[in-house]
Amino acid sequence: MAASSCMLRSSFLFPNPNLHQQSNGVVSFSPIKATYDAISQSPQLQKHRRPADENIRQEARRDISSHNLSARYVPFNADSNSSEWYSLDEIIYRSQSGGLLDVQHDMDALKKFDGQYWRSLFDSRVGKTTWPYGSGVWSKKEWVLPEIDSDDIVSAFEGNSNLFWAERFGKQFLGMNDLWVKHCGISHTGSFKDLGMTVLVSQVNRLRKMHKPVVGVGCASTGDTSAALSAYCASAGIPSIVFLPANKISMAQLVQPIANGAFVLSIDTDFDGCMQLIREVTAELPIYLANSLNSLRLEGQKTAAIEILQQFEWEVPEWVIVPGGNLGNIYAFYKGFQMCKELGLVDRIPRLVCAQAANANPLYLHYKSGWKDFKPIRANTTFASAIQIGDPVSIDRAVFALKNSNGIVEEATEEELMDAMAQADSTGMFICPHTGVALTALCKLRKTGVIGPTDRTVVVSTAHGLKFTDSKVDYHSKEIKNMECRFANPPVQVKADFGSVMDVLKKYLLSKNSRF
Ligand SMILES: Cc1ncc(COP(=O)(O)O)c(C=O)c1O
Ligand SMILES: N[C@@H](CCOP(=O)(O)O)C(=O)O
């Protein structure tokens, strides 16, 4: 069997330190590693159709791979001489000093493989059904949770989301030809939270098998984290508990944890109040905290950044625009891009833009003050309800990401974000109001010339528009106080007779084509 075909099949399953890159870029085996060759050529690893009575999880159990990759918690942005670290199998969310934690990978071990190796490995797994690599998150398992047993993974084959070329929106509204929307919301539970939740719930599954004291998993939520948590927990048979601010999330979001069997508390406060409560409760009860304060989540979310590079065949876009609320995701994107740079998959990272609703803009105010001392605010009601957050837990992570990516923070008023959403929808998308916030940031940066007409730009769409139909209905019915709703497209009421229907149709067609 040719070494190269053998390599492809084997590296699909796991990285092997005995692989070497030749000067022509081809990765091959070291001939002296006879044991490894024997394993990789064994019939068990050959990718035949599995026996009829075996499922993909059982098939993955026959993967006898081993490697020396590892990861652990360290204090976020710690001093280089800090010796504080924790195993990922510990239940811990904060450092000794009360600061955030970060998952630190053994970069020296990862660097034993070059960028070409990682690119080929990740590319080889896209679109497959092999457990767990069919997931866009777990196709990067070595960079996410290298030590977890594939059998412990709880996955809905999330990720691998559409990178949509926004041809008409870019051309018509912005004069841009290389604008892309990363549809992270076209996902199992309809938001990017699935990317992080598969990682967190998988680790909980492992902890429970290790008899660690985890009776359930809990979160505070503006609607998307709770949906993802309850779905992944339901899939694994783990109890989930969600704290929701009463009357502040959409009906579609509320029904998701209810349907998935979560224990749902509707609390008469805002998200920041719910967050405070869940932090207190998880310090007292054996409930594992699932918000992005828990850095495990960000390990999954960072794969969206890697995926963008992969979809551009490892060419780096100029700009990536992300709507921000609790501010974990902007850091996750930074981390994904930065790891790709450090491990030689690309040679630079994009500039990041974090977009906030003007009604919930603590990061924007902080940025505008020249990063002087941060002040939490009381967030006002916004149509971008999932980012109605005044005291983001990941503020330090966001500032770090923006400073290290030559980043920018922008804001969007209610009218701006709703208009942007309606305009995008009119070009064939069906986006959420948070993506409207990100598109508004793009429009502003285009107008001032900061983003150029040919700059390759990616707007991250964070949730499915179908979760936010109420706000779309209000807009298109022109039922929003103090809002012009310039792009509203209300239905036309017409009598049920041929003449009336013909009249309105002729009028419509004339407005579209003067030659009619
Ligand atoms: C739809 C949607 N978009 C954007 C965000 C912001 O993400 P982050 O909290 O990581 O900043 C959230 C949640 O906060 C969300 O649910
Ligand atoms: N939008 C989020 C808010 C909580 O964010 P998290 O990433 O810290 O869980 C939600 O949907 O709840």
TrEMBL record:
Gene Ontology CC: chloroplast
Catalytic reactions of this protein: O-phospho-L-homoserine + H2O = L-threonine + phosphate
Gene Ontology molecular function, alphabetical: pyridoxal phosphate binding; threonine synthase activity
The Tryptophan synthase beta chain-like PALP domain, residue ranges: 155-462
Co-factor requirement: pyridoxal 5'-phosphate
Enzyme Commission designation: 4.2.3.1
Gene3D superfamilies (UniProt xref): 3.40.50.1100
Name of the top EC class for this enzyme: lyase
Biological process (GO), any one: threonine biosynthetic process
Residue stretches in coiled coil: none
Annotated pathway: Amino-acid biosynthesis; L-threonine biosynthesis; L-threonine from L-aspartate: step 5/5
Residue positions where N6-(pyridoxal phosphate)lysine is found in the record: 193
Subunit structure: Homodimer.
PANTHER family (UniProt xref): CYSTATHIONINE BETA-SYNTHASE
Biological function: Catalyzes the gamma-elimination of phosphate from L-phosphohomoserine and the beta-addition of water to produce L-threonine.
Protein family: Belongs to the threonine synthase family.
Protein name (record): threonine synthase
Organism per entry: Anisodus acutangulus
